[in-house]
Amino acid sequence: MNATPSRRSILKGAALTAAAMAGSIRVFDFEAAAAPASDGIFGYGVASGDPLGDAVVIWTRATPPCEGRQVATPGSGLGRPMLVRWEVARDETFRRVVKRGTVLTSAASDHTVKVDVTGLRPYTRYFYRFHAEGETSPVGRTQTAPDDGDRLHALRFALVSCSNYTGGYFAAYRALGQRTDLDFVLHVGDYFYEYGNGADRSGPPELIGVRDGIPETETIDLTGYRLRHALHKADPDLALGHRQHPWITIFDDHEVADNAWEDGASNHSPDTEGAFLSRRRAAYQAYLEWMPFRLPEQRRVPHQGTRFFRDFSFGPLGNLSVLETRQNRTAQVNVPPFSTSGGGFIPIGAPEVEAQLNDPARQLLEPEQMTWLKNSSRGKPWHLIGNQVVLSPLMIPGPLLDLPPELTLINSDQWDGYRAQQADLVSHIAAQQNNVVVLTGDIHSSWATDIPSKAAPDYTSVGVEFVCPSVTSDGFYELARARAGAGTPAEVVVAATRAITGTLTTRNPWIKYLDGIGHGYALIDVTPDRVQADFHHTPIPTSAQPDPRIVPSVTTSYSASWQTLAGSRKVSPAAGPVGPRSDEPA
Question: Hey, what CATH topology would domain 155-573 get?
Fold first, then answer.
């Protein structure tokens, strides 16, 4: 055993010693609470979310001052209850306060504070802050939705997903925090990853010991999930993104466990990790505590379990329906030895596999949610659908996975693994009078694709799907780099990645754009005439810097633009990035 103390343990000991000596001075356990970003009562920053025309949720964590050696770190259950005051104002100096109140927080909610501020004006910019025991939080900037009766307003937001802390620095979140032209950020899942720092770790080896997960092990209980949320809220780039914009979020699988389904996950072992539903319940509780998420009305719309799916109105322009595709999904189709739990890349064509994939009893969405989705956004030009896993079919030639050329594979964790519901939804989209744009994450790459009526070259496009890149999670380039082996020049790996994506677009002609190299975000801009997606990516890897994710100062830049024109129901190139907004919030 190595007896040399780590830097982390020295900092931890210094923090506790300082707490004991200073009495009322509150410090954090550096290891458990992701210090030094967590500093002061409001060390985890502020956030806002779920903007409506007359309301927005504001959030913070108010950590009680240290009492002796007991530090109220996330998930510890320590710390006394505390009154927190909040204010919402029209100006950053808070001379024009429009709403204020007081809330009591305690260890029962992990000392998180969440207020649904109502009675606000539509399409209006606001500022908010919190106070407790002589300390004041950072000032957050937020706004209500452009849902202003019959008045037409601009709509512009960012689409993001898949932010693995150990995978790299959050350049995309910093870039979003530096923008001033967004109505909100739409995060469609994998806000964090449940993996530990051991054999299940994912990300560049250069960041081991530099950017580690907290807790060090896989998150399986309430304490672990709370700590992982705290780690992300303490990241300065993510904190900036939250402070500057309201977020609309929904979880995918990794906020609980990999490739989760209704009563299990691919990396959950009941014998050693307990009942899956207990684990999921803890994950959901931590998510609702630590995210600026408003649970929708539970009685108004039929649902199963907890209703997380919800919608947002943008006046006469359109609606956004946010799906939830994990809680009630049927277990994925597995074909050993290709996949044994939680689905994955499986070969199609065998009668027994086809029968499972086409089984109408298998569901990604519970029937109540599907009915709700079909009834959403009628009578408006644009129906936007926030969606976790790719809807459009993806046929993968065997050689891309080092398999025989006669094999074609699909990913059974995507909509391809639930063909009856996939076909049902595509048929519904085709029958609609309005324009449908599906907004997706999960696959760690950037796409602009037609939604085909059938997976064949003579398809008819019924709608459009835009897929955002990952913030940091490994994508096509990282997989190609691992396959190529150590020492392969980055330029060779980039060329191999482009060959892979080129093969996929040839095999799937409805895919009009596919980038598997850059990480970042997609900017979505909506007007009555079109919806445009601008893709913003990290730099292309080079031999000088084969993995830009490990550079703290790395940034994103504009890469490509694609659009769908009203009435066209298909993807087409856009001339260039979006220009200034047509109007601004009050």
Answer: Purple Acid Phosphatase; chain A, domain 2 (3.60.21)
